[in-house]
Amino acid sequence: MINFILTLTSMLSAVLIGWLNSIALRHFHAVILNISLGPIDTIFLVVGLLAIGSGINAMVRLRGGVRVAQEGEQIGSHQP
């Protein structure tokens, strides 16, 4: 079931990106700080910002996490 969900979300994201590029951002062009941004550049920029935001969110939420010991390992003790 999880494979089906991953495949479906992958297909839907490809459809969304195609729609954004061909219809919503068709004539989009911006220059920010002397950097020219077109539709593809904007899509990659937004995806990159989402990835950075997700990483920061995970880092903050996992900061106080409790580590689970693996087999044969003791947490908090120093082994030579």
Explain how this protein is built.
- The protein is mainly α and 80 residues long.
- The protein has one domain.
- 59% of the residues lie in helices and 8% in strands.
- A two-stranded antiparallel ribbon has the order 1-2.
- A hairpin with a 2-residue loop joins β1 (30-32) and β2 (35-37).
- The model has no long low-confidence stretch (mean pLDDT 88).
- It comes from Ktedonobacter racemifer DSM 44963.
- This is Major facilitator superfamily MFS_1.
- The chain crosses the membrane at residues 32-53.
- Keywords: Membrane, Transmembrane, Transmembrane helix.
Give a brief outline of the structure.
The chain is built from two helices and two strands; from the N terminus they run αββα. The chain has helices at 2-24, 39-62; strands spanning 30-32, 35-37.
